[in-house]
Amino acid sequence: MDWTDPGIVRAIKRQLGEVHAEERGALFEGFVAQFLRASMDYRGLCDKMYFWAPAQSRDTEVDFLLAAGDRLVAIEAKSGARFSEDWCRGLRAARDIKGLSRRIVVCPAGNPMVTEDGIEVMPLSRLVGVVREGSLCG
């Protein structure tokens, strides 16, 4: 059995109380993953979804790389309450991937913004809206 959702694992282990700080990142990333997978299956969001990490760097990665035709969208999920430039490390490393049209950091809440180098930072509610509009990969 593949335990891809940390929330399900937590429930099976009967850890139903308050979420601890060290769990927040995995739970938020899992929630975003499930949302993107469902949107891919039911809304045709994209053709494929990947995890990206360059071979030459062990500490650089992008949580989700969505492929829609020849266009790619990179998304990094971060559970923090305040934006940090460090959140963009993987997205900056991925900037030269052929076909990459958007780089996005999604977090639980906050105001949308764009970094100087074009990385979009948005709360989950905005990502949901963009997916519903059909404009994430289009």
Write the layout of secondary structure elements.
Layout: H1 6-12, H2 21-43, E1 48-52, E2 62-68, E3 71-77, H3 89-93, E4 100-107, E5 113-114, E6 120-123, H4 124-133
Parallel strand pairs: 3-4, 4-6
Antiparallel strand pairs: 1-2, 2-3, 5-6
Keyword list:
six-stranded mixed β-sheet; Trna Endonuclease, Chain: A, domain 1; single chain; alpha/beta; 24% strand; 4 helices; 138 residues
Please explain how this structure is put together:
- There is one protein chain.
- With 138 residues, the protein is of the alpha/beta class.
- It has a single domain (6-133), classed as Trna Endonuclease, Chain: A, domain 1, CATH 3.40.1350.
- Helix content is 33%, strand content 24%.
- The protein is built from four helices and six strands.
- It has a six-stranded mixed sheet with strand order 1-2-3-4-6-5.
- Strand 2 and strand 3 form a beta hairpin.
- Helix 2 (21-43) runs parallel beside helix 4 (124-133).
- The chain starts with 5 loop residues before the first helix and ends in a 5-residue tail after the last helix.
- The mean pLDDT is 87.
